[in-house]
Amino acid sequence: MPKILVTGGAGYIGSHTIIELIKQNYKVIIADNLSNSDIRVLDGIEKITGIKPEFHKIDFADTKATKDFFDKQKNIDTIIHFAAFKAVGESVDFPLKYYKNNIFSLINILENMKKNMVKNIVFSSSCTVYGQAERMPVTEKTPIKKADSPYGNTKQIGEDILMDFGKANPNFNVVALRYFNPIGAHETGIIGELPKGIPNNLIPFVTQTAIGIRKQLQIFGNDYNTPDGTAIRDYIHVCDLATAHVAAIDRLKNKEKFGNFEVFNVGTGTGISVLEIVKEFETVTGQKLNYKIVGRRKGDIEKVWADTKFAEKQLNWKAKRTLSDALSSAWKWEKTIYNEQMTMNK
Ligand code: NAD
Ligand code: WQD
Fold first, then answer.
1. For residue 263, how far is its CA from the centre of ligand 2 (angstroms)?
2. I need a labelling partner for 124 at 20 to 30 A (CA). Which of 101, 263, 267, 276 fits?
3. Is residue 11 classed as helix, strand or coil in its secondary structure?
4. Ligand 2 pocket by Cβ (under 6 Å)
């Protein structure tokens, strides 16, 4: 089976994708600098799949280290490029850190793909490229607005770099996946998202509040123009997002038919409000959540959800898991890490 290099494979989405790749018998190599992940995720992957993938500690923003790494690799068929910094707020305070890491890494990888004739790349893009679109749901043709944050800009610039690279190098193939809001964890509760410090994202904050690490969830704004006043997003189970990468690799196998640069929305197609998340979490887990409504968070948009028809038709992929599946898996994972922490503190 083809060999897949997963950059950022020790991270949240990467680790779940690796499980799916191994299930499909792909040979996987992980390269990550562990700047936002923990090497123990490899044990989790082994527990779930029976296979511990080859791991390399590499910083892809480092041009020489990237070259040295690629020079030693043979027969990589496809790169799934997850490695990037992703905290929107931090990117506003430290823009150069974000441009340097996310853009240098991409360029270093593309240069070495070219040199070593690695033909295919799947790029982690984001729904953040749409900003607040005028019409819902957003399709891949919805106009891209000027990015609201340096992080968002690295995704827009990343897509542009890849498009230009594809034009200039017709033998190389690119699929960019625009993820909506990934949530949840592997159904076993063995791997999941490991936010460092106070979580920015909704679901880790919800689970940490329910387990008692945080006192109260703040709901940012209930004066939006939405049915219950709270903001709407398209929350996709991370394991569904993982299978979209397998579909993208299949697509890359048939590139002659489709052109060598394509972009797909990867969401569920359903918009869910913050209050709906809270209610569903309480129903699914039986936990009462302590929350209060506060003012809007700076930089938040009112609503976004995906039109998923293009991915359904062209990738033959659709999100299958429910919101309830996602929230119960997130809760199971929160309990795993909490218990681990408790045992360590004993
Ligand atoms: P994550 O932080 O859990 O995983 C990213 C991994 O990349 C981490 O393990 C980190 O150590 C590694 N990394 C970062 N910079 C690196 C570098 N220079 N060299 C080597 N490794 C490096 O994040 P995630 O949620 O799994 O996100 C994966 C990708 O998906 C990112 O590109 C992110 O921007 C994109 N994305 C994420 C979301 C989301 O909400 N999680 C949504 C849309 C897009
Ligand atoms: C979801 C909703 C908050 C926390 C981010 C990035 C985006 C993409 C996905 C990478 C919003 C509300 C949250 C809390 C709350 N990532 N909320 N209380 O902001 O939609 O998207 O992740 O590409 O680029 O911006 O996700 O999970 O932070 O927020 O009320 O404590 O939950 O206001 O409406 P967001 P999120």
1. 22
2. 276
3. coil
4. 86, 88, 126, 128, 181, 200-202, 205, 217-220, 231, 233, 274, 297, 300
DSSP string covering 109-178:
HHHHHHHTT--EEEEEEEGGGG-S-SSSSBPTTSPPPPPSSHHHHHHHHHHHHHHHHHHH-TTSEEEEEE
Dist. CA 243–CA 25, nearest whole Å: 13
Task: Encode pLDDT of 125-145 as tens digits.
Answer: 999 999 999 999 999 999 999
Give Cα 110 to chain centroid, integer Å. Answer: 20
- 312-344, pLDDT tens digit by residue? 999 999 999 999 999 999 999 999 999 988 898
Across 24-36, b (16+ Cβ under 10 Å) vs e yields eebbbbbbbbeeb
Pocket probe mutation, ligand 1, options 7, 12, 180, max atoms within 8 Å of Cβ: 12
Q: What is the pTM of this model?
A: 0.98
